[in-house]
Each structure stands twice: as structure tokens, then as C-alpha cells.
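Second opinion, please. Pick holes in both lines of this record:
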Amino acid sequence: MISRRRLLTGLAALSLLAPLSARPARAASPLKVVATTGMIADAARQIGGDQVEVRALMGPGVDPHSYRQTRTDIVAMVRADLVLRHGLYLEAQMEAFFTDLERRRHVVAVAGKLPHELLRRHDHYADKFDPHVWMAPELWRRVVVEVQHALTDARPGAAGIFETNAAAHLAEIDRLSVYARAALARVPEPSRVLLTAHDAFGYFGDAYSFEVLGIQGISTESEAGLNRISELVDLLVKRRIVAVFVESSVSDRNIRAVIEGAAARGHEVRIGGELFSDAMGQDGTYEGTYIGMIDHNVTVIARALGADLPARGMDGRLSAGI
């Protein structure tokens, strides 16, 4: 982990190399926004439109739990007009850096503003919460509103534009929520068990009445022991569960160990598909947006567990062959 002294030294050096006061202010230029995750970056782009220039630090397939800022990231954040981070200890390896950065730049932890009563508490730490709030559209819309507030605070003159764009994006999230609820309700009740590499789908399970099982805990930094894998194999065999899921940002090693363990017991389990857990799809694709990410997950899960749904999802925009 980068030491506190190194972080302070790096920030001080950057301030000397590119003093913020030396940059001419241009009211018409886009607001420079840096977002840690792709989900937050997408919200900022949807709301900000041509008023913002957004950079996401963590791209497709990147695990935010273990991500550490690079020198290029530090430069981008020091020079940004606004930094949007998730909070709730999602960016665990960057906490010390953000503590320092907040003294000199406008940094907002958009999910950290959610009321605690809406959050799932961590199994082992009383003051920590499950950060994977984007898995439930009804909860994520609250984060989108916080992104709108942060952009408005940074550029009050564009408040009307941000309000209009946010309303349109929230309407799309609401429509996605309706689709998800209807699609997942078509999964037979005994099959509503979602087993994935780590415990990222808790809010999803709460929202749609699924039993969610993660081999690892809320953070991918936790280890999956042999006892945990053995317990899950027993459950798969006993309940005749036929599909489990891999994640785009987590190794599939433990999932394959569970499948092999079930096979050794005479029970066939297949991979139902790859889900987007901590990162979205490829940039420039439908799955590379928040709406596409959740549409993909809902459609893949529902179809793999027995629901009769079109493979191309809510609006027929998902990539073929999921």
C-alpha cells in the first residue's frame, strides 16, 4: 500500500508542477470530473451531458476493493474540478489518499451519503456496510441524485441542465427496475438461489427475494476456505441447484472448485453466465452503461434459473449469445 508520506509527497510535488492557481478559468469549458468506478462515471455523464468531461479510474474487469491509485490517477484527481468516489469503504486501498486529497480538492463520496438504515451491515465490522448498492436500481437512484447535487454544487450555473438530465436518467432507472422485478418473478421460487464468487449481490437478493450466496465475503480481499467451499457443495447437491455464476472482475477459480466438488458427488452444475459485479462492461457498449449492466445481470440470472425471457434483454440491446 502506498504510504501516507508518499501520498503527501506526491500531492505536494504535483501542486508545484501544476499549480491550480496558474490555470486560466474558462467558464465555458467542461467541468473536469474524475470518478472512481464506471457506475459513478456513467451517472456523471448522463447527468452532466456536454457540461462535463468525465474520467473513470477503474475500467472493465477492475476490482475496486483492491485498486490502488497510480501516478496518472493522482495527477488527474489533483487537476480535476470534482472527484466523485463511492465511499462505504469500497475503494479500501485509497482511503488514506482521499483523506489527504479532501483537504485541497472537492471530493464527494456519493454512496456514503445514503441513510444507514437502507444499508446492509457488514458481517464482521459494526461500523462498515455493504458497498454494492448499485445492484438494486431503487437504491442506486439515490446515489444518482447525490451525483446531481455534487455536479450542481460544482457548477451552479448549469443546475437546470443537470436537473433535466437527471430526471431523464432516473426515469430510465425506474423503467429498468420494473423490468427487473417482472423478469426475476418468472424464476421458479425453488430456483431463486444466486451463487457467485463474492458477496456482491446482497442488495439484489433483498430487492428481488433471492437467496444470495458468495464464496468470498463482501470484499474480494477475503479468503474462501475449504470449509466454505465444502458447505456450498453440500447445498448445491441437497437443493439440486443447477447453475452458478462467475463475475467479470473476480477470478473464477473458486466457482470452478465448487462445480468440481458437486460433480464428484454426482451432481452436475453449470456456469449460468458471467455477471458484472464490481465493474461494468466494455466502454462504448450497452453493457458499459449502468442500465446495460443491470439489464445484462437480470436477464442472465433469470434465464439461467428457468425464466423464459428474450436473450437480448429489456430493449433487445444486449450482446448476442448471453
Observations:
- The CA atoms of residues 229 and 257 lie 7 Å apart.
- The two ends are 38 Å apart (CA to CA).
- The beta strands are 31-35, 52-56, 82-85, 107-109, 193-198, 211-216, 243-247, 270-275.
- The longest helix spans residues 159-184.
